[in-house]
Amino acid sequence: MNETTWQHALLDAITTPQWQPDPRFPAGALAVYRNNYRVGLMEMLALVYPICHQLLGEEFFEALSREYVKATPSASGNLHRYGGSFADFVAAFEHTAHIAYLPDVARLEWALHRGYYAPDATPLAIATLAAIPQQHWGELRFCCHPACAVLDSRWPLADIHAHHQPATAGCAVDMATAQPLLLWRDSDGLMQLHQLAPGQAAFCQALLHGATLDDASAAGLAAYNEFDLQAALLLVLQHGVLSAIKEPS
Amino acid sequence: MTAPLPVCAGIGLRHPHYSQVLAQQPPLGWIELHSENFFDGGQPLAMLQQLAARYPLSLHGVGLGLGAAARPDATHLASLRRLLDAVPAVAVSEHLSFNHDASQRFANDLLPIPYTRAMLDLVAANVAEAQDALGRPLLIENLSSYLAYPGNDMHEGEFLAELVTRTGCGLLLDVNNLYVNQQNLGTDVDAFLAALPPHAIGEIHLAGYTERSFDDGSTLLVDTHSRPVYPAVWQLYRQVIARFGARPTLIEWDIDIPPLDTLLAEAATAQAILDQYTEAAP
Q1: Pick from A54, A89, A117: which residue ends a domain?
Q2: Residues in chain A within 8 Å Cβ distance of B76
Q3: How far is CA B201 from CA B63, B140, B168, in A?
Q4: Is the same domain home to A126 and A108?
Q5: Same-domain status, A102 and A127
Q6: Both A192 and A242 in a single domain?
Q7: What is the pLDDT of residues B237-274, one digit of tens each?
Q8: Which of B63, B64, B119 sits opposite A3 (nearest CB)?
Q9: What average pLDDT does chain A have?
Q10: Which end of chain A has fewer CB atoms surrounding its CB within 10 Å, N or C?
Q11: What integer pLDDT is reported at residue B282 of this predicted model?
Q12: Domain that holds residue A239
């Protein structure tokens, strides 16, 4: 076995879900590496998904994350990037099917995690926009702050989130209310949740995807026929969603 | 060229102590943090910049896997470069280990590598590529291993010495890793130390291990960084300092992290040993 195939074999032996004795490697050493691998990834999931953890309880969350780790190899040397497909896994996992909102809670937690570590960007100054004649605004596209995300969920994600924070623990949650959210990062670097009015989720999502202001406005109107562009534009400026005007290509 | 680390004791700074250290600013010779925890931006990066303004900073990577038969991950290298551009680190280190293959499959761990001529060619190319991308030399750390490639044609000390010659990298000598390997794998400590080029050793690590027993009756010392430094490791540290002279020395503690005072006391013990040899030097 040459050096490359030996490294392959060792990675196989460590990451293969089912334990099999491997005559090429001492059992004790392999047990240490296999345990490091599994526990490291499971601990990362517990760190990224504290609300899912609370909702499911220690034992259930551990069993779920064990199954996720079996199904999902690590694809980065940076542990902070592990677990992005957890929501999809949860959505397809039969033993959590009775908690219909769990996948969206996982999506929220992943967006909060990635947003917290996302690169820095300067918010677009209102004066920069004001310097452009208003009849040209519709054609503008924007670079958006990398920490921002939109979650257009049919569940009361803001309430569920608040319910699991120490300061607001146990607050009421009306499961019949949809709470579409804008996630943004404040000047202290903390992620914040803002509940969006009808049409605003589609508008913000379009801007994040690089649409022109006209197209984003049309998306807002398509979602809600009384969509208020001025209010929505003020919202994204106030929360630092826009960071720069893209040069026309 | 940045100034090297100060020749004194420092501590590995971890999450439970970030705010305490920023608020109280205890007298620490230097601090070391894990690079990957500060990739990209936001509050983590801002805090690291605050710490770097107060203490000499060493950034210690656990994710590049430069000992892989595959090339280093370009995304990871680019993230590390952005971090180094944003924070004034006086030392940057990585391990002589692997964590991935060419298909971008990762184990987020420090896995042992073959010590052969063929492997040396690959690792030297990886270290050179990383140093080029980062625009500075790295300190490469010896590994704690629980198994060894059966076809080794040199030992880890010789491998590291060759790596220094070929790439101009420096070395981070982890004394606990060396002790653990001696106990687990029968590593010849004297031969290992004798092979190292003294000028290249830019930093030393100390930590505590955990003994684990297995069903087949075998035991291993596992490099858990979860305990005080053991007496036998302090003894080996004294030998290392007597041999190479005083070097910047770090206390690492990553699991079951104790109060800051416990880490400071461990660092003070290392400092007392360093002081003996600093005073004795001509």
Answers
A1: A117
A2: 76-78
A3: 21, 9, 12
A4: no
A5: no
A6: yes
A7: 999 999 999 999 999 999 999 999 999 999 999 999 99
A8: B119
A9: 96
A10: C
A11: 46
A12: 119-249
Cβ-defined contact of A77 to B41 (cutoff 8 Å):
no
Q: How far apart (Å, rounded) are the C-alpha atoms in residues A183 and A112?
A: 7
Q: Mean pLDDT, to the nearest integer, of B229-242? A: 98
Contact A32 B146 (CB under 8 A): yes
In chain A, whose CA is at the least distance from the CA of B148? A25
d(CA A224, CA A200): 9
Instruction: Based on the fold, state whether residues A140 and A96 are members of the same structural domain.
Output: no
Closest chain B C-alpha to A226 CA, distance in angstroms: 36
Look up residue A248 and give its DSSP letter.
P
Q: CA nearest A122 in B: which residue?
A: B42
**Cα–Cα distance for residue pair B114/B103, rounded to 1 Å:** 19
Residues in chain B: 282
Size of interface A-B (CB pairs under 8 A): 136
Q: What percent of chain B has pLDDT over 90?
A: 95
Asked if the C-beta of B232 comes within 8 angstroms of chain A's C-beta atoms, the answer is no
The span from the CA of B165 to the CA of B158, in Å, is 11
pLDDT digits over A160-176, tens only? Answer: 999 999 999 989 999 99
Q: A194-249, pLDDT tens digit by residue? A: 999 999 999 999 999 999 999 999 999 999 999 999 999 999 999 999 999 998 76
Domain boundary (A65, A96, A117) is at A117
DSSP code for A74: B
Nearest C-alpha neighbor of A81 from the set B39, B93, B32 = B39
B contact residues 152-211, partner A, Cβ 8 Å cutoff? none
Instruction: State whether A29 and B220 contact (CB < 8 Å).
Output: yes
Which residues contact residue B18 at a Cβ distance below 8 angstroms, ignoring those fewer than 6 apart?
B47, B51
The residues, ordered by sequence, that sit 6+ positions from A133 with a Cβ below 8 Å of its Cβ are: none
Q: Which residue has the tokens 């002081």?
A: B275
Asked whether residue B91 carries a pLDDT value surpassing 50, the answer given is yes
The whole-number pLDDT of residue B280 equals: 54
pTM: 0.95
Q: Is the CB of residue A128 less than 8 Å away from at least one CB of chain B?
A: no
Taking CA atoms, what residue in A is nearest to B121? A3
Specify the CATH number for the domain of residue A247.
Answer: 3.90.930
Q: What are the tens digits of pLDDT across the range B167-224?
A: 999 999 999 999 999 999 999 999 999 999 999 999 999 999 999 998 888 899 999 9
Collect all residues of chain A within an 8 Å Cβ-Cβ radius of residue B216: 27-28
Q: Hey, is the C-beta of B41 within 8 angstroms of any chain A C-beta?
A: yes
Could A77 and B106 be called an inter-chain contact, meaning their C-beta atoms sit closer than 8 Å?
Answer: yes
Contact between A40 and B108 using a beta-carbon 8 Å cutoff: yes
- Is A76 touching B (CB cutoff 8 A)? yes
